[in-house]
Each structure stands twice: as C-alpha cells, then as structure tokens.
Here is the input.
Amino acid sequence: METYGYTQGSSQNQNFNNGNYRSEKKIAAGLLGILLGIFGANKFFLGYIKEGVIQIGLNIVTCGVASVIPFIEGIIYFTMSDAQFDQTYIQNKKGWF
Here is the structure.
C-alpha cells in the first residue's frame, strides 16, 4: 500500500529514502500562496498565524505590493521536493522563505 504524507514510526524514514514520499500540504500551500497570498492564506494553512497576520498587515500598508512575497513562496514550494518541503515547513516550522 502506498502512503501519502504523514506516517508513524520508521516507515516515514523509509519513504524519505525510497522517494515514495508525498507531501499532503505542498500543492495546496503553493496554490494558496500564488492565488490568495494577499490574504496570507498560505501562512494560515500551514499554521503560521503570526506570519499570516504580518502578511495581511504588510499588504495593507503597501497597498498590495507585499503580495509578491507569498507569490515567490508559492513558487518555492512547488520547486522543492515533497520531503524537503515537509522537513522545512511542517517539521522545522520555518516561517518565511
């Protein structure tokens, strides 16, 4: 049986090594960053409430110019491997870029 996303125990490490690992949040976070980044939707989806509020504040202050930041983040999400995305943004909780 093929597993997608989060698994328990040592099988997760096996999926990282075999290349069968598939992130559950990568595509959704990338699309939210590109399409709804002006509202900080990608940050809220990943559980970064403080960063999402900061993103909304930046967009209000800059009249939407700061929406370039989540657009770039969405592209970064898509260019990462699934395992690298989960290690960086899900497990290590890296808030920006």
Summary: The chain has a mean pLDDT of 83. Residues 49-61 form the longest helix (13 residues). Helices lie at 11-18, 26-36, 41-46, 49-61, 68-79, 82-91. The two ends are 34 Å apart (CA to CA).
